[in-house]
Amino acid sequence: MDLVFLGTGSGMPTSTRALPSIAIRWGSEVLILDCGEGMQYRYLRIGFGVNKEMKILISHLHGDHYFGLFGFLQTLALSGRTRELLVIGPEGIAEIMDTILKRSQASSKSHSERGYRLLIKELKNEVEVLDFGRYCVKAVRVEHSITTYAFAIEEKELPGTFHPERARALGVPVRYWKLLQSGQSVVLPNGIVVHPRDVCDEPRRGLKLVYSGDTRPCEKLIKLAKGADILIHEATFMDRDRDKAIESMHSTAREAAWVAKEAGVRSLILFHISPRYTEQEGHLLKEAEEEFSNVYLPKDMDWIKIDHE
Fold it and tell me: Which pTM value belongs to this model?
């Protein structure tokens, strides 16, 4: 899994931090977390492609998190996209998209004219789980000034390592090997049943990435992030401005680290950094590190790879 931080700022851009957006390449698929204004330019620079299987997850409807969506959809059409695209977001996003796309001549085309089918999934419940085969997306409503969702992208359990020598010793024909690797038991011609555990190691836990959206630290997010490989958590404020964090329903860097510690995550990535700290980001990082050891503060266009443990 590759993560590229297209924008890591908050509220308004600076010369060093654009508005929030993260692109994830996972095999042949692309997922995008929020679409801050201008994200399409940076997306085109990273070369993830315009016609991949794609899902866009919008955490909430504050403008810095989704104003870049509409230009991006138009660019995909102009670039020749043909594959279906799914946008997932809070209730109200469908109405906003419908209004803007209808008012914009360049984007008001039917899907046959646009070139690709655009699907919208509105989140309306406290918790929603969307199953996409090899992984699922769990959306949980968190604590912000408007309806906001955190997202967990969780890969399903992976088969353990297959050992052909064990299969041969049990007399399993090669034609059955893939079935055993996929988790199915097989019956041999002599009537003996061979189970995956007979020829494979224990199944492996899949990757889990959690994105907080904008939120105060809360138990719902801790529960969602339990055991995650990566927690991307907003860190809008430093300790000295904790009163502002509480008033605006954001988090401090230290609070983000506390959530990471309570959830037992492998790594914490700080995100949504306020422009007021442009010259003090080292101090912001230090406050988080005093609470949790494995913390990363990315710059725009930083690229990281996540592997299984």
Answer: 0.89
